[in-house]
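pasting for the record
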Amino acid sequence: MNTALTISEINQLFPNEWVLLGDPVMDESSLHVLAGVPVYHSQGKKEVCYIGRDKAKSSTCITLIYTGLARPSRKITGIVNRLPK
């Protein structure tokens, strides 16, 4: 796929996946991704990073987005629970 898609189109095509975008269009004031060319996508973040890196060589700039809901971090709660009271 060599055509740029909007974020809403990317969310519909690749739900709950990591998507590597080539030549992203960014909102300069808040650094939100507005559009980009999907280079590689998968449910595994590491897979997208390793395999997508080789596929994105023709892009001048790349970014990685997740199209699902972010899970809360469990690392912080684990540390807080271990602190002495």
